[in-house]
Amino acid sequence: MRLLSQGTTSIGANATNKNVLSGETYERLPYDCMVYVGLAESATGLLCNYLIGGMGVGVNIAPSLINRVPQYPQDYPIRGQEGPDGAQQILSAQNTTAGALTLFWNVEYEELVVA
Q: Is 11 exposed, middle or buried (0-12, 13-18, 19+ CB in 10 A)?
């Protein structure tokens, strides 16, 4: 089974959102899976960190500068990262500019099936 979470989040000037995925249906991984994360921004200035179960998978990632929803594969800095069932995901975003910016994000989950 494959699932998708998608959204847009506004990050205020010189602000940080500690977890963009907080409160989302799949804030915790729904099953043992491969995770694919797509990131894009409305203008230059965002830095993102992605963690699974407290482990840094991607640190200081600059999202694609495209002002739209990320497209696979060019806007997916994390492709096929394994994650265990129930592990919390943290996607933080820091705005390094003096104006609000928008983060466009996708997180896809591909179930790992053991034969």
A: buried
